Amino acid sequence: MANINVSYSPYRSTLRAEKAAAKVASRTAEVDATRNSSEVIKIDISPSFLIVGMFVSILMLGGLWLMNSNKIVTSGYQLKRLEISQQELKDQNDVQNLYLAKVKSLNYMEGTGRMDNMRKPGNVEFVFGENVIAKAD
Question: Where are the domains of the chain?
């Protein structure tokens, strides 16, 4: 019997070639679609633009550093002023306490004459009970 080779027939080989070409075409269309949807944008940056950008960023960082150091120095001056005013208030408090102690002293009261009109009680009678009560004539 004659051996017929069906897999290598000219009809089938052209059919397979058409299917392969269709697959390749669909794959290239998919690749093109994905390339179009997520295009990569390339930016061409010149060295002079980089130098200017670095210079501007250094200036901005320097300005921020200057503002921060100015804030720290200013708060130091304010702290020193507050310490001075606190010390002044403490000194005034000490003067007031000395004056109050002087006014409360017995020698001051006797020297001002406030106690001249006071008299000594004659006969003192004490009543004892729940509360002690004194009566002076």
Answer: 13-37+47-115
